[in-house]
Amino acid sequence: MDTNQYLEMFLDESREHLQTCNEYLLELEKNPEDLTIVNEIFRSAHTLKGMSATMGYEDIANLTHIMENVLDAIRNEDLQVTAEMLDVVFESVSYLDEMVQDIEAGGTGEKDVTAIVAQLNKIEKGEPLDAEGGDEVAATVVEEEASLAYDDFEMTVISQSFDQGFNVYEITVRLREDCILKAARVFMVFEILENAGDVIKSVPSVDKLEEEAFEREFAVVLITKEEEEVLQTKISKVSEVDYVEVTAVSEENLKADKRKQEEEIVQTVKKQEVAQKDSKKEKPNRPAQNQAANRTIRVNIERLDILMNLFEELMIDRGRLQSISTELHNPDLTETVERITRVSGDLQNIILNMRMIPVETVFNRFPTMVRQLVREMDKKVNLEIIGAETELDRTVIDEIGDPLVHLIRNALDHGIEMPEERLAKGKPEVGTVKLSAYHSGNHVFIELEDDGAGVNRERVLSKAIENGLVEEEEADSLTNRQVAELILASGFSTAETVSDVSGRGVGLDVVRTTIESLGGHISIDSTEGEGSLFQVQLPLTLSIISVMLVELAKEVYAIPLSSIIETAIVHSSDILNAHSQRVIDFRGNIIPLLDLKEIFELEDGEAHSDDEYHSIVIVRKGDKLAGLVVDSFIGQQEIVLKGLGDYLTNVFAISGATILGDGQVALIVDCNSLIK
Amino acid sequence: MTENAQQAIKKVIVFELSDKEYAIEIDVVQGIERIMGITRVPGTPSYVKGVINLRGIVTPVIDLRERFGLEKKELDESTRIIVVSLETYDVGLIVDTANDIIDVPLQAIEAQPEVVGSVSSEFIAGVAKVENRLFVLLELEKVLEPINRVESV
């Protein structure tokens, strides 16, 4: 079957199901008694198994299958949820995740799962993961023997054999613990048995025995004319066989068995009834959910991108119509253009909203990640997530994941202290890391707050001086916030020992660079001994932005409103000179003035020197401000952001271009590169 | 026409730069435009005239005369912008006029002679002679090497 066309769908759905598994597993960890959660996990695992088997990803199917067995056992209350068990299940899910990612990257999705499958097998049989705890093993053995029950067909065969004078034996064989080629030994045993008579049943089944999907022991039922002792010696001669037990089956105990079995069946039926009752209780909620699900559709993201592009073109033409109508002064035209403007405004909102995805899609992988990291580091941390439903443009979402991972790792590694240390400081043993997201104006804020050690001023300063980021003299004059922000500077890592969690050479400056390239901003607030707060500010969308259009010697430039603090007109006498730099006093702050015409290689208009008033746009990058000198302000406008293409890359202080209402291209000023 | 004869022909667009005829393969040409408003991009080499709005796509344009170090000429009615599409980007080429599409038999194309006018030889892929006309075939990859200037100010 050609499965390629379904691949995308398979990947999408697999990711969703794995995510569900992860979420519910975390839930289950908190409420180990709640079997409805297990049901949910089971359902996801089951679907995943079906899908992967159809797509021909055997390893995924195998692993989910055995995982399903464990979950089933939990569901039927044969197994108790334990921390070790969850660890293994978590690990299996992350294995599955890796395999799905491999497939996504064009791989085969194959992975050696035997180790984890063996562990799951052990769990399923109720055996402890370590070698200890012998009595539980014994319990399993008993159970297994009991499970050598016969169905009606086998019963008939056996009773016929008795009639014809055959002996029926139950033979239990145990292999040595260090046995390597289990399948080979099984084969040898079977060969002996089959020479002697007919094997009518084996536990586990022959298939499983061949796949070595059993621990050390297996049992078979043999119909033969040979004697017990002969069989016993013959099988014992196979090497690496630890123990052989041959018991004759008599008609009486066969009947006793049957009765017992019937009782068991009655019990299972009862259990099932109970389970059904349980599920009936849940039912009333379902139909409503289904209806809600039917009202959403899946749309390929590429189509949305195309829609966005088309809309951008419409926006440009709208701008053009607007400028034509202002020239023509035709009331009908003006009215129509106004209508178009309103409608397209609404359309813009809808299209932008369609591209919005809840940050949940990024956040939801963090609980598992934190859980794992915390275990590795022997720390105790509680991750709180607030505002996961906050929506962000897809383009931003795609980029924000890695920086956040970095920040979280940083908080866990450098922020939260070891439990003993926390207790000694009088803090609660379990640290708290709070990840929250919320909207504010045209921005989305993502905050990461921890109640850990905070930024150690002394250590950061000495490191910064050592790396030449700060002069020794100015160190004392820096505020705590300024010191804290040093850790975002490039070439910085304060961890005393390099761990593999964070501090692998790439510092938090990578985080800052990524966020700034998204038009965002990161700040840090920290109190030593009490914790740190990282705040990431991001634009809602990257494709349509608000700008202030300014004129420079007849050329039009756009300055993003997100960088503008305010505009001002200052008198020549207010401009001061500090060294060779012109500065102004802006509300008590001395800020440098940058002449955009100089930067953009424009001839200084003759008006410049004798003009007494200067138009200035005050922009910021983080805490730093600067005033950009322009000829005049044109006004504020929503524009569609366009790139300059691959031919012109890295143009200084220009982040892109846009098309104005008159069809001309205007360049967008990149304030971040103007302020050092 | 036989298969072979078909393969042996190259369709080219012919344009003029200071009275010399040049040619580029038609496959890479997206269109020929009249001159339109060009927005200067600061901090780029002088032959990069700026960017134009090509039906909603911001496209850089370069002046081929300046690129080849020929004398400058005012833009006029006959000036054209030939938009060519390379692997990852489109660029507009400002030329004096562009007026012809012709078929050039492959055997008419020769490797570049020692000296062809004043155009630097690395930009030239070859020379074609068709019915007493001589065309210089351009090596566009070289002419349009991306401009990757690190921060200059």
Topology:
The complex is a heterodimer of chains A (676) and B (153).
Chain A: H1 4-30, H2 35-55, H3 58-75, H4 83-104, H5 114-124, H6 134-146, H7 152-163, E1 167-175, H8 182-196, E2 197-203, H9 206-210, E3 217-224, H10 228-236, E4 241-248, H11 251-282, H12 286-294, H13 301-328, H14 331-354, E5 356-358, H15 360-363, H16 366-377, E6 381-386, E7 391-393, H17 394-415, H18 419-424, E8 431-440, E9 443-450, H19 457-466, H20 480-486, H21 508-517, E10 521-527, E11 531-539, E12 544-552, E13 555-560, E14 564-571, E15 575-578, E16 581-586, E17 589-595, H22 596-599, H23 607-610, E18 613-621, E19 624-630, E20 632-640, E21 648-649, E22 654-659, E23 665-669, H24 671-674
Parallel strand pairs in A: 6-8, 13-23, 17-19
Antiparallel strand pairs in A: 1-3, 1-4, 2-3, 5-7, 8-9, 9-11, 10-11, 12-13, 12-20, 14-18, 15-16, 16-17, 18-19, 22-23
Helix pairs in contact in A: 1-2, 1-4, 2-3, 3-4, 3-5, 4-5, 13-14, 16-17, 17-21, 19-20
Chain B: H1 3-7, E1 9-17, E2 20-25, E3 29-34, E4 48-54, E5 57-63, H2 64-67, E6 80-85, E7 90-95, E8 97-105, E9 109-110, E10 124-130, E11 133-138, H3 140-143, E12 147-148
Parallel strand pairs in B: 2-11, 5-7
Antiparallel strand pairs in B: 1-2, 1-8, 3-6, 4-5, 6-7, 9-10, 10-11
